[in-house]
Amino acid sequence: MPVSRVVDVAPERVVKWAAGFASRHGSFDIEISDDAVVLRATDGAVASLAPPFPPVSIPDGVAPLVALAEHAAKPRRIGILLVRLGGYAVGVFDDGALVASKAGLRPVHGRSAAGGWSQQRFARRREGQARVALAAAADAASAILLPAKETLDALVSGGDRRAVGNVLADPRLAPLSEIVVSRVLDVPDPKAAVLRASHPSAVAIRATISEP
Q1: 77-202 maps to which CATH number?
Q2: Domain spans of the chain?
């Protein structure tokens, strides 16, 4: 049964990474689509290389992996929004440099082991804390991202998918909906340091490898 794993590959390393894939699995054929370059090796292994900001075009005469690397490495101005219940971090990166940001914490208590009325009161309190936390994240996203919306090439999110979805559902952020990419970053509790460290993953080529 095939075993799958996912790794992020920096754009400048993708050609060397593909050479390593060939050394482990044999020569490969290349299939090209708008959203991936797929390597199919002679031993049955498959690597699907997804660009960070699809679609990617392959110009005539340019090797697909080189075109993929150049597409991923293209200078861009992107927003990154990281949200988990209890914390958020949002920033604008200009070709990798963080030029505007805001991060904050809003405590949301865990679930109570008590039952009956105590549990219901705790649940109502937790729901209220969650609403306050998500509202604070939406306020920060509006303050940082909306002034830059005309210059942003993409918006990348990360953290808890449900929390991110709730924040992006804020009507104020509707103008950003067309630039939100499908990739969601897996990050710990959002903090300023986590935000700064998230950019390489946001612009990496995501390789999904299935090995026999």
Answers
A1: 3.30.420.60
A2: 3-74+205-211, 77-202
